[in-house]
Amino acid sequence: MRISCWAGGAGAAAPIVWFPPIQPLAFAETLALAAAGVAAGRLIPVPAAGLLLPMIGGAVLSATGLLTIQLPQWLLAASYAVLAWSVGLGFTRAVLGHALKALPTILVSIAVLIGFCAGLAWVLTQLTGIDLLSAYLATSPGGLDTVAIIAASSRGVDIGFVMALQTMRFFLVVLLGPPLARFVARQVRE
């Protein structure tokens, strides 16, 4: 197996156009969708509603042709930076100390999880004919936002496929996670 099938193909990456011409109305509508979704998400008592509402609303409006989503590279880069800062600022001395104690177990778990996801990706390539990197990103664990960043910045990745599977996984976790956690907690108490 060639390394390039995991790396998204060989050759130089296309240059990034940081400040492309934008359609002002489409850009304003995209920003309004994001702001309205986040505001509505704060009012609705559903886990991750601030992420789900703009995502579902954008998908529906875009699919029906009512909205053209306009996301210039500079906005994506700024969003990625804010996301990274919010994750990084969540680390405290206590969290790092706890993580260091658990590091050996964490490393073994990571290796097993990577191997399991690689196996699932291989099965997906055999069943669907999708490229290996797209299949791996579609099955990899972690946040939808992180996988979206990696998929968008990797050449040759089928972003639609990756995001569809990741979104399905996200919905399953949100819907099945709490009842499953309650079931496990009840079993442990008994």
TrEMBL record:
Task: From the UniProt record, give one GO term of the biological process aspect.
Answer: regulation of gene expression
Transmembrane region(s): 44-67, 74-96, 102-125, 132-153, 159-181
Which is an annotated Pfam family here?
AbrB
Question: Superkingdom of the source?
Answer: Bacteria
- Cellular component, GO, one term: membrane
Q: Does the keyword Calcium apply?
A: no
Question: Which key words are in the record?
Answer: Membrane, Plasmid, Transmembrane, Transmembrane helix
Classification via NCBIfam families? Gneg_AbrB_dup (TIGR03082)
Quote the protein name from its UniProt record: Membrane protein AbrB duplication
To which species is this protein native? Tistrella mobilis (strain KA081020-065)
